[in-house]
């Protein structure tokens, strides 16, 4: 049975081993892309739309569980993790499959058989998938400890001077060719740091990415309006412009 897959792991040797073992266990499978972190996994998934995604749980920036929440219901998910407890609950509910590092080839063969069966059936994600992934994310944060050292100031050139913009005052950030536009309560400025770099440095409880080119401060969001094709628009307090929400990030606003 032919199919397509994406592999996401920050360790090149592990990606290579998984790819080589998959070639033996599932010769008809084509690995269309490989990602080094969760954010890249979501971007490559949107580009290639693979049927199966292998996600390492521990990756820098956006981890595998966060990436799974963006991809959920659009592909078969397999967590690759050194900690079995992260995936057992979701596996038992039929939401995902998992491999424990260092995985054995026989275990991967079992996973391949289950994936083939699921791909033959009509798409039907577990209704508990969202809550399971939220629970896994909470457990991961508890085990690793809350992240610290989030960005507090953004250094930007404003005219002939350099200004330190308090992150608390930032309304949103938007990619602008080779630069990033910083919109804050006192004005706008361009900086050389990319959206991807900023997403990994900002406090995720306050700042969320809504599109591959946009990050918004949740404290400045007044409402989110659903649009066509599982997209939406973010409305900001006291501002006319609206920000796009792509389908990969719509799950972040389901409770709003």
Structure write-up:
This protein is an alpha/beta fold. It folds into two domains: 3-144, Response regulator (Rossmann fold, 3-Layer(aba) Sandwich); 153-253, OB fold (Dihydrolipoamide Acetyltransferase, E2P) (Beta Barrel). 31% of the residues lie in helices and 32% in strands. It is built from seven helices and 15 strands. The chain has helices at 12-25, 38-48, 64-71, 85-92, 105-120, 129-144, 195-201; strands at residues 3-8, 29-35, 52-56, 76-81, 97-100, 153-158, 161-166, 170-176, 179-184, 187-191, 207-211, 214-217, 221-226, 232-236, 242-245. It has a five-stranded parallel β-sheet with strand order 2-1-3-4-5, sandwiched between helices. A five-stranded antiparallel β-sheet has the order 10-9-8-12-11, with no helix packed on it. It has a three-stranded antiparallel β-sheet with strand order 13-14-15, with no helix packed on it. Helix 2 packs parallel to helix 3 and helix 4 packs antiparallel against helix 6. The radius of gyration is 20 Å and the shape is elongated.
């Amino acid at each position: 049975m032919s199919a397509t897959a994406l592999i996401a792991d920050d360790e090149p040797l592990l990606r290579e081993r998984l790819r080589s073992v998959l070639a033996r266990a599932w010769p008809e499978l084509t690995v269309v892309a490989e990602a080094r972190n969760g954010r890249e996994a979501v971007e490559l998934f949107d580009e290639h739309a693979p049927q199966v995604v292998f996600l390492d749980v521990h990756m820098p920036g956006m981890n595998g569980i966060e990436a799974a929440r963006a991809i959920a219901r659009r592909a078969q998910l397999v967590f690759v993790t050194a900690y079995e407890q992260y995936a057992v609950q979701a596996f038992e509910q039929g939401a995902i499959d998992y491999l424990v590092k260092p995985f054995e080839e026989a275990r991967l063969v079992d996973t391949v058989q289950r994936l083939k069966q699921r791909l033959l059936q009509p798409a039907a994600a577990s209704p508990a998938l969202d809550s399971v992934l939220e629970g896994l994310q909470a457990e991961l944060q508890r085990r690793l400890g809350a992240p610290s050292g989030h960005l507090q100031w953004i250094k930007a050139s404003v005219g002939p001077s350099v200004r330190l913009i308090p992150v608390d005052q930032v309304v949103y950030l938007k990619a602008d060719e080779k630069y990033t536009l910083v919109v804050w309560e006192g004005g706008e400025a361009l900086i050389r740091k990319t959206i991807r770099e900023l997403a990994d440095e900002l406090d995720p409880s306050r700042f969320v990415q809504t599109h591959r080119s946009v990050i918004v401060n949740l404290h400045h969001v007044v409402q989110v309006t659903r649009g066509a094709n599982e997209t939406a628009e973010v409305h900001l307090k006291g501002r006319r412009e609206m920000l796009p929400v792509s389908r990969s990030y719509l799950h972040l606003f389901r409770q709003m």
